[in-house]
Amino acid sequence: VHSDQWRYERGFSAYDKTAKGLSDHTIDHQVRAVRKGWLPFFPQFNKSPLEVVAEAEAKGAKTEAEIVQYVVEALKRGELRFAVEDPDAPENWPRVWFIWRGNAIGTSAKGHEYFLKHYLGTHTNAIAEEVAEGHVTEVVYRKPAPEGKLDLVVDLNFRMDTSALYSDIVLPAA
């Protein structure tokens, strides 16, 4: 989601004419899955978990159950949002990426050029036009799309692969 590849895709019906009732965009289904607890997403909320707990305690929450109840009520009121609902808001970006013994930016990344463009903000050969605007309903579509979301990339690796080449820090892994 954070690589913004979803911006370059249309809804299901654009690819499969037999998909009746599946006109929603993939990102819309991902947002619903996160809300229902079926899919993990980090960061979880549009505020730091430490900040959320501090707010709950300031409003009188003393136990873990009371903090959980505060979070549930804040989500229902719309005071707290899932980060996946607005993945391009600066407060919802991942800032540090630790990669351990994998080529996450290269061969493991579906949409390598989108990782370079939106995660790293570096040179890219992405040629596709953004087509998701008007097709998504569950996420905020921000214009222009942010580039260079990450502040730090640390790679623990035993070979010089694409991830190591684009990392800020490369540490040897045994």
From TrEMBL:
Domain of life: Bacteria
Gene3D superfamilies tied to this protein: 3.40.50.12440
Key word Oxidoreductase present: yes
Signal peptide location: none
EC id: 1.7.99.4
Keywords in alphabetical order: Oxidoreductase
InterPro entries recorded: Prok_molybdopt-oxidoreductase (IPR050123)
GO cellular component, as recorded: membrane
Keyword Oxidoreductase: yes
The protein, known as: Nitrate reductase alpha subunit
GO molecular function, one term: oxidoreductase activity
Coiled-coil residues: none
